[in-house]
Automatic annotation (TrEMBL):
Gene3D superfamilies named in the record: MetI-like
Similarity field: Belongs to the binding-protein-dependent transport system permease family.
Keywords: Cell membrane, Membrane, Transmembrane, Transmembrane helix, Transport
Residue ranges crossing the lipid bilayer per the database entry: 9-27, 99-120, 141-163, 183-205, 241-266, 286-312
Location in or out of the cell: Cell membrane
High-level lineage: Bacteria, Bacillati, Bacillota, Bacilli, Lactobacillales
Protein name: ABC transporter permease
Protein source organism: Lacticaseibacillus pabuli
Keyword Cell membrane (UniProt): yes
Location of the ABC transmembrane type-1 domain: 95-305
Coiled coil: none
Length: 319
């Protein structure tokens, strides 16, 4: 297994190289430049051309790409044209915020989704199953950004229960107050994200539980006198987890990539909001670094999903 994982990691290298070239070219093909109107609206064309020249933006694309690769191997992802900070520092700062929100959302998603899916499958065709299905249908029907706006309007501005912007309150000093403030800022967006993230988990798990419940091997086990709680615990639940495990890696890496909708509505300073601002301001260095990071996370998610599948079902091996 370890040899296979090493081989998969080595295969990622040429894939990331191709991705970096494509992303670099597409970023350079974007109209506009990172200096016009972003530094000083009164900046003249001569000064803009000077900034473009000293930053190497008039060099051929292959020379710019080579310089970027050389700096990358020295741990330098460049400097943001918008924030005037090293890109690596921006990613560390925003990545930490996204990590807190992603972990909290993921834990809530599985805490809510797994019991609901099993509960609906066990009570197939009954009132309990109908109520769970109504919840999933309503969740799928309403656009995600609408729920975010309504949620922040009701619980943030109306009831004033949760903060409506930022990741930590400026008044929080010390470890304890900072931790409580950070938790308070991720509670509402994490809960709303988890409620929508449970839809696929509930639907897949419900279907798998129902299929397993009516399968031949379960009938055979029941005929041997094994009680249903033990059958659910040792057989149905474990087999039903396979499709959920297949999405586990993608869920983790997808959340780490940041949710643009969530971070934009809540003005949460994470990776998604950083990427959106980078596109708006033609911040080439940030765009290239983030897309390359997202590509790596996507490839990593594929590998993690295979590993999780092999853990849940030892008959499956990473290949």
């Amino acid at each position: 297994m370890w040899k296979t994982i090493l081989r998969r990691v080595l295969i990622m290298i040429p894939e990331l190289i191709i991705l970096s070239i494509l992303v670099f070219l597409l970023a350079k093909l974007m109209p506009g430049d990172p200096f016009t109107g972003s530094i000083n609206p009164r900046l003249g064309q001569a000064q803009i051309h000077h900034l473009m020249r000293i930053n190497g933006l008039y060099d051929p694309w292959y020379q710019q790409y080579w310089n970027w690769v050389v700096h990358l191997f020295h741990g330098n992802l460049g400097t943001s044209y918008e924030y005037h900070e090293p890109v690596i520092d921006l990613i560390k700062q925003r990545g930490a915020n996204t990590l807190y929100l992603a972990v909290f959302t993921m834990v809530l998603t599985y805490v809510i989704g797994l019991p609901l899916g099993i509960y609906a499958g066990k009570h197939e065709g009954k009132l309990q199953d109908t109520l769970v299905q109504i919840y999933t249908y309503v969740t799928m029907a309403i656009p995600y950004f609408v729920v975010l706006v309504v949620g922040i309007w009701i619980f943030g501005y109306g009831l004033n229960l949760f903060p409506t912007a930022g990741s930590v309150s400026p008044q929080a000093n010390g470890f304890g107050p900072t931790l409580l403030s950070r938790i308070g800022h991720i509670l509402l967006p994490g809960l709303l994200g988890a409620l929508f993230g449970t839809v696929n988990i509930v639907q897949y798990l419900r279907s798998e539980v129902i299929d397993s419940k009516h399968s031949e091997y379960v009938r055979t086990i029941r005929a041997k006198g094994v009680p249903m709680p033990a059958i659910y615990r040792h057989h149905i639940f474990r087999n039903s987890l396979l499709p959920i495990a297949a999405f586990a890696g993608y869920s983790i890496t997808g959340l780490l990539g940041g949710s643009i909708f969530t971070e934009m509505v809540f003005s949460y300073p994470g990776m998604g909001l950083l990427f959106l601002n980078a596109i708006n301001f033609r911040d080439y260095t940030v765009i290239t670094a983030l897309v390359l990071l997202y590509g790596f996370l996507n490839l990593l998610g594929t590998l993690l999903s295979d590993i999780v599948l092999s853990i849940v079902d030892p008959r499956i091996r990473v290949s």
